[in-house]
Amino acid sequence: MASAAEQLAANLSLGTLSKATELKKRIWFTLGALLVYRLGTYIPLPGVDASVLGEMLQSRGGGGILGMFDMFSGGALGRMTVFALNIMPYISASIIIQLMSAAIPSLETLKKEGESGRKKLNQYTRYLTVLIAMFQSYGIAVGLESMHGSFGAAVIDPGSFFRLSCVVTLVGGTMFLMWLGEQITARGIGNGTSLIIFSGIVANVPHALASLLELGRTGALSPVFILGFLVIAVAVVAFIVFVERAQRRIVIQYPKRQVGQRQFGGDSTHMPMKINTSGVIPPIFASSILLIPATISGFGGGGIMATIGNALSHGQPLYLAVYAAMIIFFSYFYTAVVFNPQETADNLKKYGGFIPGIRPGSNTADYFDYVLTRLTTIGAIYLCIVCLLPEVLISNYGVPFYFGGTSIMIVVSVTMDTVTQVQSHLLAHQYEGLIKKAKVKGRGR
Questions:
Q1: Of 275, 283, 298, whose CA–CA distance to 374 is shortest?
Q2: Average pLDDT over residues 405-427
Q3: How far apart are CA 24 and CA 381, in angstroms?
Q4: SS3 for 256?
Q5: Alpha helices in 146-222 (DSSP H)
Q6: Local structure of residue 96 (DSSP, 8 states)
Q7: pLDDT for 284-311, tens place per residue?
Q8: Where are the strands (E) in 266-384, listed by range?
Q9: CA distance 314 to 22
Q10: Most confident region among 175-184, 239-248, 330-339, 384-393 by mean pLDDT
Q11: pLDDT of the residue at 29
Q12: Contact 82, 43 (CB under 8 A)
């Protein structure tokens, strides 16, 4: 069966895609939804002069936590549009609920209740998304009222009415994107939330390449360095693909069972364990926390905050050391949240499975913990390499912010996931065709 599936997957072609009408509908729906999202990133927020915020971001070289959020929003924050918050509040709420479900027994019980529990957790996630979006949008409204640039004040008519309209507009934009992401997941291809962030990053890649080439034209960077940088970027992408696809396969054996005159079971399968179980979450958490002091000092914070902000600015040794330490910490922390060795061992024992040479129960849980700890160590080192190398290039050579390790990882991971789902749909379409042919032949006989 496995060899047949591999052969079918190898035979997937554009001809197969042209016959898969359901898949074509899903692809067109996804493209249409992403087009709606991109159009929304150009609808301005009422009462705001976006040129002031754009000037502020440009003066900081696109860095700081605002620069990172602007990258994830596809430039919507820099243009101060209705999608300025993007879908980041929903992602923050999802991560918080996921972490709380591992710490709060009632939420952990809901997580184990199946579909009904999942719907309840999704409802809590939406409520928390509204609260986070309201808090962030009010902070943006207050911050905009205090901004002044060479073009004048950022807010044309500050006051309570502006704050209310800003909160309502930005929260509404976030909730619309949350709904749009759910529609893409249900009726399109891939994970809707990931694709929205992916499209925002990719939309600014041409501008980032143009900026890089402009640095070469003006002599700020040598052509040899630009060529070497592009080669390194391709090598980093290949390295990410290799590690993200790498697995440690643990053999699982099921005993034979006698039912009447027939024997069942006795099959051998494997449990795949990824090297990077935590995904892109550790770099996002680490960079968000580290950029807060630099951003506060950039807005005029003095004294101790200014000293800390300078020490934790891009490329500084302290920044790189703390960044690596936080990536390693969040790698272990998030892996411990999403994978429970004891629960996995209990489920395996419940269905009669066992690892050859390992006793079921606590010994199996210890073995899972042993393997997972070593895989997480390799995954944390991999994340440090991928994220610290671009940081050095950004700080020392002025490479555009969009070539950061976090953005590259998101683009590569989402692309791999989407391609896998497309192949799954094509494979299912080919199986349907084989079943129909078998039925026709059966009737002909």
A1: 275
A2: 82
A3: 40
A4: strand
A5: 160-187, 192-203, 205-217
A6: H
A7: 778 777 766 665 655 555 567 667 666 7
A8: 268-274
A9: 47
A10: 175-184
A11: 92
A12: yes
State the Cα–Cα distance between residues 328 and 441, nearest whole angstrom: 58
Question: Who has greater pLDDT, 324 or 153?
Answer: 324
Where residue 282 sits, what CATH number does that domain have? Answer: 1.10.3370.10
The SS3 of residue 150 is: coil
What SS3 state is found at 267? coil
Q: Which residue has the tokens 């899972």?
A: 368
Using CA atoms in the order 123, 124, 130, 131, what is the torsion angle rounded to 10 degrees? 170
Look up residue 430 and give its two tokens. 């080919």
Tens of pLDDT, residues 241-253: 898 888 888 888 8
Biggest CA pair distance of the chain: 88
Q: Name the token pair of 419.
A: 């391609």
Residue 289 located in a structural domain: yes
Band of pLDDT at residue 12, cut at 50, 70 and 90: very low
* Averaged pLDDT score across all residues of the chain: 79
**What pLDDT digit, counting tens, does each position of 13-23 carry?**
445 555 568 88
Taking a C-beta distance cutoff of 8 angstroms, is the pair 203, 74 a contact? yes
Residues composing the chain: 445
Q: Are 166 and 137 in contact (CB under 8 A)?
A: yes
User: What's the half-sphere exposure (Cβ side, CA atoms, 13 Å) at 44?
Assistant: 11
Domain coverage including residue 254: 204-438
How many Å apart are CA 25 and CA 32, to the nearest integer? 10
Angle, helices 192-203 vs 64-72, to 10°: value is 110
pLDDT, average across residues 237-243: 89
Tell me: do 340 and 255 sit in the same domain: yes
* 186 and 145, same domain (yes or no): yes
- Work out how many domains the chain is built from and give that number: 2
- Give the list of residues 6+ apart from residue 378 with CB closer than 8 angstroms, or none: 275
Q: Check the CA dihedral 236-242-245-247 and report its sign.
A: negative
The single-letter DSSP state of residue 221 is: S
* pTM > 0.85: no
Instruction: Please check whether residues 87 and 217 belong to one and the same domain.
Output: no
Residue 425 has pLDDT above 80, yes or no: no
**Tokens in use for 241?**
């693909």
Between 114 and 433, residue with greater pLDDT: 114
Whole-number Å distance between alpha carbons of 284 and 406: 7
In a domain, 50, yes or no: yes
Both 266 and 196 in one domain: the answer is: no
- Is there a domain that residue 8 lies in? no
In a domain? residue 15: no
